[in-house]
Amino acid sequence: xxxxxxxxxxxxxxxxxxxxxxxxxxxxxxxxxxxxxxxxxxxxxxxxxxxxxxxxxxxxxxxxxxxxxxxxxxxxxxxxxxxxxxxxxxxxxxxxxxxxxxxxxxxxxxxxxxxxxxxxxxxxxxxxxxxxxxxxxxxxxxxxxxxxxxxxxxxxxxxxxxxxxxxxxxxxxxxxxxxxxxxxxxxxxxxxxxxxxxxxxxxxxxxxxxxxxxxxxxxxxxxxxxxxxxxxxxxxxxxxxxxxxxxxxxxxxxxxxxxxxxxxxxxxxxxxxxxxxxxxxxxxxxxxxxxxxxxxxxxxxxxxxxxxxxxxxxxxxxxxxxxxxxxxxxxxxxxxxxxxxxxxxxxxxxxxxxxxxxxxxxxxxxxxxxxxxxxxxxxxxxxxxxxxxxxxxxxxxxxxxxxxxxxxxxxxxxxxxxxxxxxxxxxx
Length: 428
Prior knowledge:
Elements: H1 8-29, E1 37-45, E2 56-61, E3 74-76, E4 81-87, E5 93-99, E6 102-109, E7 124-128, E8 133-135, E9 139-141, E10 149-158, E11 170-174, E12 177-182, H2 186-189, E13 191-194, E14 196-206, E15 212-219, E16 223-230, E17 234-242, H3 246-251, E18 254-261, E19 264-272, E20 282-288, E21 293-298, E22 302-304, E23 308-310, E24 319-325, E25 330-332, E26 334-342, E27 351-356, E28 362-367, E29 381-390, E30 394-401, E31 404-414, E32 423-427
Parallel strand pairs: 1-8, 1-9, 10-16, 17-24, 26-32
Antiparallel strand pairs: 1-5, 2-4, 2-6, 3-4, 6-7, 10-13, 11-12, 11-14, 14-15, 17-20, 18-19, 18-21, 21-23, 22-25, 26-29, 27-28, 27-30, 30-31
């Protein structure tokens, strides 16, 4: 009798199937074939908060019981530690894939930055779970500026003249670095100084100018300060008006005073001449030390005879006192005034005249006579002729008849300086 036997091949297939099922179960529960997880993160600059590219990121696991490692990993020692590597992209982002389920410690390193290693307090620890991506908070790296230098430069200009400063002993201090006994033009090419973080002072001193201090934060890249305005060491001129006529003082005109050097105005002042408070002086400030100037003045009703020259000592920085006389330094702008005297009480044979009350200018007395073949008209007008008087101010013109107090009349008139013909003034 033939016995029925199972084919050997079926037994072998069954055995292989059971082994495969066990392996798959082991992949889910054990250590034979982890599904793996991932780690992602970003590295930024601590100052600019911009992503840092090309940072080397190292991930080291704490090890497990299997002693196995996946591709791209390296195992070390009996602890079965595994190391993986990544590099940040242009935005500072990095990513690890195929990471086994474990705690990983990340370290960061790039030339020019302070490294963050596994032992640092800022080291990043992250737990990886199978089939999940662990996101690491932003990591901030601090620049390392040791042994790094930058160039600081600028152009020095006179704040008054606007010209470049090209001569004079120059001392420049940048932070803790000093550059002494230099020429101003050397600053245009610049000075090399160590990188500095925080607040840094730049002190610039040039002969003939006041020291200038500039303050900047974080000198970590080359910097062109542009135009640096230097205030020249200066002196001042304190002026006082003298010989002011009464009619000028009563009006109190405003005068403008200019200090000129090489036909260029370098200082200006205005001041009231006379007025209720009395004659006020003026002060011209900010005149560069050692600069000779000429004073020119504009004032109502006057023209200056010639500019007044001021010659200070080369190192003088104080105040020069200068008087300006309206009698000696100026000439009045004059105009012919033709006076007519009109009075209904004029009779033939009367003597009439006129004068300017402020200046004392006198018009000659005239004896009134009837014109040939006629009589005095009504109103009766007498032409007293012309005399020159100052312009620009209101003046009182007084007409009178001798031996007749009732014949005294006054007319207050502004004498203009804008005409070539005699100005007509009628007293009536």
